[in-house]
Predict the structure of Scaffold protein Nfu/NifU N-terminal domain-containing protein.
Amino acid sequence: MFSKRLVATITAASRFAFRSHAQKSVRAQSRHSYHSILCQHALPKTLAISHHQQQQQRRTMFIQTATTPNEDALQFIPGVPVLGGEEGSSKRTVEFTSPREGLKSPLATRLFAVDGVRGVMFGGDFVTVRKDPDCPWQLMKPDIYAAIMDHFSSNRPLLREEDSGAQQKDSMDVGEHDSDIVAEIKELLESRVRPSIQEDGGDLDFVSFNEGTGVVRIRLRGACRGCASSTVTLKHGVEGMLSYYIPEVTGVEAVSDELEEQANKEFAKLESQLASSNK
């Protein structure tokens, strides 16, 4: 026989269960009524959500920006591979110093359309953009963000098919005709110098080594172009390291890009003509 306390407990539990069942039935009827009303507008609402999701998909890429030693260059990190899709390509970079060169890449073409952009470089997981000193980043960033997000959301190739093969060569690759000293220089630049420079959104090319004078000539690219600290980096960093490991090296010189110089002259000429016509 059950005790009175146990019977009271069971009775209370039964009442609670009955109330819960009744409440669930009311909620179910309410949900059914709401669902019936919602179904009357299901098609247009579904279309609206689909359109919203498409817009969100294009805008969900989180792009990080990183400053560089060059105040006129910024590194944009989209969180997806840029040139890192191929084996060994994570160390490779591709640079465009003029709108004409930028025609080889749909993304570079879009970036050069942003007022003030002077150069674009692609790395394994980053995009470096150089600007005109007179153009503020605050006005340029929204268009740069939009160009990068739209490109990587469209699944378009980074380089045009007819130009992708020409970008496979790397100045740091050791050739069969390179001397032992040149091979050592390239290996040191590749392993000791290049990684730290690329972290700052820049890069460098090996140009030549003069065995008579012991001078190594390199070309700075990306954020390193026009950077005030690049001279210090060359003398105290690259030159000191190379001469320490390779006694034949006596100095390091940076060479300018003739194409960039010509493009800068044409740009300055165009600015002068526009200024004269506005007077």
Residues 4-39 form the longest helix (36 residues). The beta strands are 64-67, 73-77, 94-96, 117-122, 127-131, 202-210, 215-222, 251-254.
